[in-house]
Write a structure and sequence with these properties.
The chain has 359 residues and is an alpha+beta fold. It contains 13 helices and twelve strands. Helix 4 runs antiparallel to helix 5 (130-145), helix 10 crosses helix 11 (228-236) and helix 12 packs across helix 13 (320-331). It is globular, with a radius of gyration of 21 Å. The structure holds 2'-deoxycytidine-5'-triphosphate and magnesium ion (MG). 2'-deoxycytidine-5'-triphosphate (DCP) is lined by residues 19-24, 53-54, 66-67, 112, 114-115, 168-169, 280, 283. Keywords: Cytoplasm, DNA damage, DNA repair, DNA replication, DNA-binding, DNA-directed DNA polymerase, Magnesium, Metal-binding, Mutator protein, Nucleotidyltransferase, Transferase.
């Protein structure tokens, strides 16, 4: 059943999720017309263990995607054009996009440089449809930035985000409350917010593959298997997500987490994995224009026991080498199932941190 409150039309929230298409690559194609229509990969050096930050949709046809090694991307598509990121250009485009979104409601919650949730419930109170706002936003973004965005419109964050992903690139999908359950039913559980690879594996061992399977599992069984998270799974399988759109969410840390299908035992593999994770954190820090002094890592064992270690340095840390340097001695000697590197930003490296907006 959808959220009980959805029975009263006036209580239904109108949430829009906007996500730019192939963001870094699209900025490159906009600024360099000769790259349009071509497989463009933005990221690290294929000759030097770099990873793909993103790629154009032309490159995606070759099976290339974010977080893949650049070397693998080059083997899949030797004619691809590799570019180093130009973060300042992406931040400029992001500021422009977020500015457009804030014309429609102050309730804009940026999730990264290229995506945000908007709560337009108040803006639609006088009869304007949320889908009209979403259409106008997409048109304005294209006209004013020369870039395309996809949007999803629904009654909560969970569904709005799934909807924006559905018609990518350059698409729009509305999932009204009466279609929420049917829309969710066939989706693989891995599409749901908070369901990572380890959870997908655990759910499949319980015979749960789709959201409909998840909906048919009992609340008790899910709580017994996953604790408090089981209750979240129970609710999202029913399209229930009460998370508010939080415009001024203060970012407490920037981090990334990976769950492995098998335990990591080999120190060399652990170190290589840590380097990859540190690289992703460094990219995000740079994307957000932030730096930090405290780096922490977390390791979780197969029995869910979790250890964390943190190091605070006198210098600000913001690039991969420094992250790895500090994270390495902290992480040694822990065979682990989940690894997470996280850095707490400090004010000072960039103007953005002091403002309300992280973009
Ligand atoms: N990004 C990154 N490293 C990743 C994932 C993303 O540096 N592992 C950066 C590059 C992306 C931007 O963040 O352009 C936005 O991420 P998205 O996941 O929204 O991906 P895109 O916008 O590139 O593609 P799309 O949203 O069309 O799937
Ligand atoms: Mg995007």
């Amino acid at each position: 059943m959808p959220d009980q409150r959805s029975e009263k039309a006036s209580d239904v929230r109108k949430i829009i999720h906007v996500d730019m298409d192939a963001f870094f690559a699209a900025v490159e194609q906009r600024d360099h017309p000769e790259l349009r229509g071509k497989p463009v990969i933005v990221g690290g050096d294929p000759g030097d263990r770099g990873v793909v930050a993103t790629c154009s949709y032309e490159a995606r046809r070759f099976g290339i995607h974010s977080a893949m090694t650049a070397a693998r991307a080059r083997s899949l598509c030797p004619q691809a054009i590799f570019l180093r990121p130009r973060m300042e250009a992406y931040r400029d485009a992001s500021r422009q996009v977020m500015g457009i979104l804030r014309c429609y409601t102050p309730l804009v919650e940026p999730l990264s440089l290229d995506e945000a949730f908007l709560d337009v419930s108040a803006a639609t109170a006088d009869g304007v449809l949320a889908v009209q706002i979403a259409r106008e936003i997409r048109a304005r973004i294209e006209r004013e930035t020369g870039l395309t965005a996809s949007a999803g419109v629904s009654y909560n964050k969970l569904l709005a985000k799934l909807a924006s992903d559905w018609r990518k690139p350059n698409g729009l999908l509305v999932v009204p409350p009466e279609h929420g359950l049917a829309f969710l039913a066939p989706l693989p559980v891995g599409k749901l917010h908070g369901v990572g690879p380890a959870t997908v594996k655990k759910l499949s061992s319980m015979g749960i593959y789709t959201v409909l399977d998840l909906r048919n599992a009992s609340r008790e069984a899910l709580i017994a298997q996953f604790g408090k998270t089981g209750l979240w799974f129970y609710e999202i399988a029913r399209g229930i997500d009460r998370r508010p759109v939080q415009p001024s969410r203060q970012r407490k840390s920037v981090g990334t987490e990976r769950t492995f299908p098998e335990n990591l035992e080999d120190p060399k593999v652990m170190l290589a994995t840590l380097q990859q994770i540190a690289g992703q954190v460094a990219t995000r820090l740079q994307a957000l224009g932030l730096a930090g002094r405290t780096v922490s890592i977390k390791a979780r064992f197969p029995d869910f026991e979790t250890v964390t270690r943190a190091h605070t340095d006198a210098q600000t840390i913001w690039h991969t080498d420094a992250l790895c340097l500090f994270a390495r001695p902290i992480g040694q000697g822990h065979p682990c199932r989940v690894a997470c590197a996280r850095i707490r930003p400090v004010a000072g490296r960039d103007r953005e941190w002091s403002g309300q907006s992280q973009c």
